[in-house]
Design brief:
It is built from 13 helices and 14 strands.
Length: about 400
């Protein structure tokens, strides 16, 4: 399979991990040699309920027996999408009450950027250094990492950058600014949390100058930080919230939510201000609905905070400098990228899946399913410590 994988499927890096997947259940992925791997990554935070969650699987099967794609987004009333958006609104603070469903997080970012410009009539967008919001041309334009952008320039104009948690930089948000886009917790930069009420101060500045505050919840969203959305930990409400990854229980989806008054601007002057063929797909919307119901009707969000404490208590080792993040969005920081690389690769050999962050080479990503058990956390952390002990003994 790997030979054909490399020959016929476009690659994203020179050296993919190349695991030949047979099946996946719960917190484990199995390869074609029947070896099982404990999954501490969850499809890069996408499989919030683990693999093959029965409630999600059943919702998908039930919808397949009714209808699949019938019309481009926004024309027909389809129960899965309507029910999902209604339930989502009930769990969001006012005025966030209307949602546009799309196919991925980066597509949702595109819609949010357009909505900020449409609402304000302004063009300037502000993002953060070391920010990651996706890889389409608009999303890449607000990526704060020049090395990954240079080869694709020119990108969209009138984008400026500030430093996350730097209050002095907030003066760059002016009456010329359409919107500022921030990750609630910076992901690729190393799971950096806002501090000293930074997000509240961004909110105040945006309100002062009439700019839109866009929060990217693609990674922290859907229970991973102990709340449905990360921003709910910081006493702030954005104008636009962007989501993806964990919202679909492993299915491809994204969305952006704002007030009804703002969202209605996309329907006229011009018509079809944002359009998608497969956004709101009934099968995927059914998976989203089941996922949201499971997260909000159980103790998974509060349990995530207890599981964070367990991770922090177990992952104590001379090679670990600190544990960053919140809930089950964690990064174990080592002294060097070489150490991180070795730990990730050796843990996979021993049956534990870890992964990297985009820009911070010293970080070991730990973003397991919300459904992971305490026993499985102990099992995985034991492998990490065993690998680190072996590395130290080899020095």
């Amino acid at each position: 399979m790997n030979t054909d994988f490399l020959k016929y499927q476009a690659q994203t890096s020179p050296y993919p991990l190349g695991m030949e997947v047979s099946h996946a259940v719960g917190s484990y992925i199995y390869d074609t040699n029947s070896k099982k791997y404990l999954d501490f990554v969850a499809g890069v935070s996408a499989c919030a309920l683990g693999h093959q969650h029965p409630r999600v699987n059943q919702a998908i099967k039930d919808q397949l027996d009714k209808y699949s794609h019938v019309m481009v987004y926004g024309e027909y009333s389809q129960s899965p999408a309507v029910e999902y958006c209604k339930l989502l609104a009930s769990h969001l603070p006012a005025p966030l009450d209307k949602t546009y469903l799309v196919n991925s997080g980066t597509e949702a970012i595109e819609g949010a950027l357009k909505l900020a410009r449409r609402t304000t009539g302004r063009s300037q967008l502000i993002s953060c250094h070391n920010a990651y919001h996706g890889n389409t041309m608009g999303s890449m334009s607000v990526m704060g990492f020049e090395e990954r952008k240079q080869i694709f320039r020119p990108l969209i104009p009138d984008v400026d950058f500030i430093t996350f948690n730097n209050e002095e930089d907030l003066q760059k948000i002016t009456t010329k600014t359409a919107g500022i886009i921030l990750e609630t917790i910076q992901g690729g930069a190393g799971f950096i949390q806002p501090h000293n009420d930074f997000l509240k101060k961004v909110r105040e500045r945006c309100t002062e100058v009439g700019a839109m505050m866009i929060l990217d919840e693609i990674q922290p969203g859907f229970g991973r930080t102990g709340k449905l959305f990360g921003f709910q930990n910081y006493d702030v409400v954005p104008d636009i919230v962007v989501m993806g990854k964990g919202m679909g229980g492993g299915m491809p989806v994204g969305a952006f939510t704002a007030s009804s008054a703002m969202m209605e601007l996309l329907s006229h002057d011009p018509k079809l201000g944002h359009i998608t063929t497969f956004g709101g797909h009934p099968v995927i919307a059914s998976a989203c609905l089941a996922t949201l119901q499971e997260i909000t009707e159980t103790n998974l969000m509060t349990d995530a905070m207890d599981k964070e404490k367990l991770f922090r208590s177990l992952l104590v080792h001379p090679l670990i400098e600190e544990i960053r993040g919140k809930g089950l969005m964690l990064a174990a920081m080592t002294k060097s990228a070489d150490i991180t690389n070795e730990v990730i690769l050796k843990c996979q050999d021993k049956g534990l899946i870890l992964f990297w962050l985009l820009f911070e080479g010293c970080a070991i990503r730990i973003t397991p399913p919300l459904t992971i058990s305490e026993e499985e956390i102990r099992e995985g952390c034991s492998i990490i410590l065993e690998v680190m002990d072996e590395m130290m003994s080899e020095e």
